[in-house]
Amino acid sequence: MVRSPEARQIRRRYANDKYPLVVLRFEDGHEIRLKKGEGKAFDAYAGETIKVVVLWDPSADDREVVAVLKAEQFPEDG
Q1: Cα–Cα distance between 69 and 29 in angstroms, integer?
Q2: Is pLDDT at 3 greater than 80 in this prediction?
Q3: Whole-angstrom Cα distance, residue 18 to residue 24?
Q4: What three-state secondary structure class fits 57?
């Protein structure tokens, strides 16, 4: 019998100490916004791709993708 793979949730953290406003964009489309100096823990699935996007001017639509990381590449929360 072949078992289907199970999605495993992991708890990770991101701290924005470099950019004025960062958006973590997840595969399912939800976003977490972090101002400079803020940090946030989040749940993600192992293997999930997360984009780190910088908003230089929040009133404009200009966005810059500065990193594309797998959930495991973020530091563990705790």
Answers
A1: 15
A2: no
A3: 14
A4: coil
